[in-house]
Amino acid sequence: MFISINNVHKQYADKDNHQIDILKGIDLGVNKGEFVSILGPSGCGKSTLLSIVAGLTPATSGEILIDGKQVEKPGKDRGMVFQQAALFPWLNVLENVIFPFKRELPKKQAEAQAKKYLQMVQLGNYTGHYPHELSGGMQQRVAIARALAMNPDILLMDEPFGALDEQTRTRLHDQLETIWTETKKTILFVTHSISESIKLSDRIIVMGTKPGIILQDIKVDIPRPRHQHKKAMVELEEYIMGFLKKEIDKVVREELAHESNH
Q: What is the pTM of this model?
């Protein structure tokens, strides 16, 4: 297994110093080149899990292995794309993409590498533009190009299209799918959108909340391109929606029962 998440727990202390389980007993394996979405309601710990895989947040217990090596800190094998593009406003598009690896390559080679990935996200004509001159969707494409230009084995994406309008999101889905097909990167993609996860993923990991646990691991057996198989997509969406609704109702009932007992 290329990414192995083994019995990962994450706890935080609340204001009264009680330990709260954010993630509990997470076991997950991801194959090389696989596109896996982590789906669940707010507060289920999906972004925390991605941050642990990135090496940005330590697990309370358990381990993450990538290609057999334990993750202890961020590494060049993992590129991260956040919900906000997090570009440097004083650098132009080309400089933003080059920034993470500019000390490692000669200037011309670094520029050629950055331009290759800017072409891939269809921003080859925007190298001299600054972030404030770009739309939100274009800024996210720069962020994706920057992550890809570092040539990581794994792309970690934390709700990268969550702040965008529906039309822009649909365009970026198509671009991301093309990039994934061309680069064969392993992608771990956090989302709260059921339709987005169905459109993009080989597998969907459905998480429950309080604590964050894996409820289901769903293989998406719908042929690509998926927009040609709308009926199958709608059926899977309705199944996941019904399943998550039951889980959310259960959590609400438990909370109400807990409150009435105090």
A: 0.92
Q: Which pLDDT band, with edges at 50, 70 and 90, does 128 fall under? A: very high
Write the pLDDT tens digit of every residue in 227-258. 889 999 999 999 999 988 887 777 777 777 77
Q: Where does 48-96 show beta strands of DSSP type E?
A: 61-66, 69-70, 78-81
For the chain, give me the number of helices (H) and strands (E)?
A: 7, 10
- Residue 45 identity (one-letter amino acid): G
Query: Helix, strand or coil for residue 224?
Result: coil
Tell whether the torsion through CA atoms of 180, 103, 82 and 61 is positive or negative: positive
Domains plus CATH for the chain? Answer: 3-77+152-260 (3.40.50.300)
Convert the pLDDT of each residue in 78-107 to its tens digit: 999 998 888 999 999 999 999 988 888 889
Could you give the residue ranges of the DSSP H alpha helices within 135-193? 136-149, 166-183
* Tokens 């940005």 belong to residue: 56
State residue 258's pLDDT score: 72
125 SS3 class = helix
CA distances from 48 to 24, 34, 54, 165, 186 (A): 12, 20, 10, 25, 19
Element (H, E) at 239: helix 230-260
